[in-house]
Every structure is written in structure tokens, then in C-alpha cells.
Task: structure prediction
Amino acid sequence: MYAGLLTFTAFVVWGITGIHAVFLPPPGTEGEPATTAVREIPWRAPGNLDDKALSAAAVTASGLRAVGRPVLHQRDAGQNLTFAVFGPNGRSDLTYLESAGKLRVEIKGNSFAEFLSASHAGSRRRGPPEWGARVWGVYNEFANWAFLLMTLSGIYLWLATRPKIVWAWATFGLTAIVVAALWWGTR
Amino acid sequence: MFRFMRNVHLALGVGFFFVALLFAFSSIVLIYRPWFPSSSERTRATAQLERGLDARAAALALMRSRMAEGELRNIREGEGKLRFIIWRPGTEVNTVYAPETGEATLDTRRYNFYETLVQLHVNHGFFHDFMPANLWAALSLGVSVGLLLLGASGIYLWYRHPKERRIGTVLIAIGFAVPAVALFATRLSGG
Result:
């Protein structure tokens, strides 16, 4: 009971995420997320950085927070370095306009449901380095263990306190058959 | 009312036990990937199909002959050959079909138990050609709604235990305030 009360918020986030997932498009048909903001900031990279180090420095200079490491490094038609960062708030595409000495930041923000969906996967090891995301990650990871524990202890409590309820056994047996049949059909 | 809510809590618990266990355990696999073996079995086979088929027709011919089962994904064309994947949770068949000769090569990758659980965890939506994937998605939706109802009925059952109210209130306040502030701060930090 105590674990359930402590992790109730995680249950709500996971529940919303699971319901939201039903309405997501099929893989490969998502399309590009819409750009929600664009800004250019004056910035010149030190000359001795390779692309990877430059992209990390550019993220710091951009002021973007709650994002992971830069990925998807490419060069555009003008040979400008482009890369992306992802975080619970969405995706940001950065372009270092080397000759102009500018950094262009295109933000493709997540909706609140997408934010919760991205957050539900957070853990101590996964997610941006900011304190908010770290605290959520620790809580979410704890809630995962609590969920596993409660799933098993719930069955124990049922068997220990009310083992003679026929409809509970029938429900349990029926779902066992459905899940086993589905597993067999899938494998 | 208490008896009713207790039965609702039990019904949801036993009804979604196996799917909840799948989600709980696969979440642990996702968080602690290095703890779990990531092996997969690979097999190779060839098949002779009709000549001149498009990717969909070739995939359907393979499915009819039971050489592959699942949904068609990721069609690519090049060097006079069609490449596509026939996917279902836990199994991926990378297929190369030559329309000129009708020969198809199937490279089947069968993921292990843990990876299959993860693929079922992220499986969603009712758009799948492979019917069991839709049924898994329906179970996922059910357990998501079930989680919310289990939480709500659990709170009610706790509240009906006066001796537990004080400590429960503290726990629920901590369990709400800490993650809510953390999420709020993350959201405010923007992109």
C-alpha cells in the first residue's frame, strides 16, 4: 500500500502514456514534427574542435536544456554542420552557420502528452542531465521496481486473504489462457 | 462501497496480472539492458516465388507459404532487387526478392525472450496487419486504463483505513510533490 501511494503519480503518467500511444501513427509514417520556434544566435566555435566536440559546445552555447547528447551529424548543401538533440520537450535541430558566425536553432516542441510519453521512459541512466529530469528518473526507476513488487505482492495478498473467490480464479485463469495463446500466436 | 471497491481492485489486479507483469518486467529490462542477454537466433532460407511480383505480393506469397508471418515494413528497391522486412513482435525477416528470377532470400532474426518482451512493451496502435500485434495493443490499452483504475481504487481502499491515513497522506504528498516538481522543472526548461 505504501509503495502504491508513493508511486501513484508514476502510475498516472504511465496510464496516460499507454492511452496516448494508441493514437500514435504507425512506425515510419510519423512525418517530420512541426517547427515551433526558430532562433539564430551569434556564435563562433574555437577552431580546434572536431564536429562532435563542436556540436557539444554549440548545445551549451544555444542555452538548450534538458536535452541529451547531439546526434545525427550531417552537412547541409552549404557544408554547414547540422545535428539534433532530443529531450522530453521535443527535438531541436541545430545548424552551425560557420561563415556567418551564427548558430541556428530550430525547436520542434512536444505536446504535453508527448512530453509525458517521453518522460515515462526516464531513469537514472536515461534522460537529460538537468536536476528535474534526474529526480524524475530516480523516482520513475523506483516506481518501476515498486510496480513489479506490487504486481507480485498483489497476487500474494489475494491468495493469502481471499483465496476462495471463484470469479477471481476464473478471471485469472481466463487471462492466463488469453496471454499464453497470444504469446504462442506471436512467437 | 468498500466491499465493491475491494472487488474492483481485485478484479483489475487478477485480470491484468500477466500484462502488468509483462510491462513491469520489460521496463526493468529496458532500464538495465546490460543485465540481460541480447542474443538472437539467425536462420537463412531461400524460396522460389513467381517472377515480376511487387514487394507486397512477394511478402504475401511468403506469408501464404508460411515462410514468414507478420507485417510488411521498410520496402527498399535497388540493384534490381526488392528488400523488405516482415515483422512481428520478437521476429524480423529481412527479405531480398529478385523480380527477374523470382528468388527470395529470407534472413530470419528471432529475438530472445527479453527482447520480445521489450518489443511487446512498445507495440502500440490498431493499424497492424498482423492480428496478434493488434490484440497485444488492445491489452496494453486495457492495462493502461487498468493502472489508472487500480491506482484510484487503491487510494480509496487506503483512505478507508483510518489508522493509515496520517502516514499515507505524507507518502502520497511526497509521491506527488517530488515527481510533479521534477516534471514541471523539466517542462519549463524548454527545448
Observations:
- Helices of chain B lie at 2-15, 17-31, 55-64, 113-122, 131-159, 165-188.
- The mean pLDDT of chain B is 89.
- Chain B has six helices and five strands.
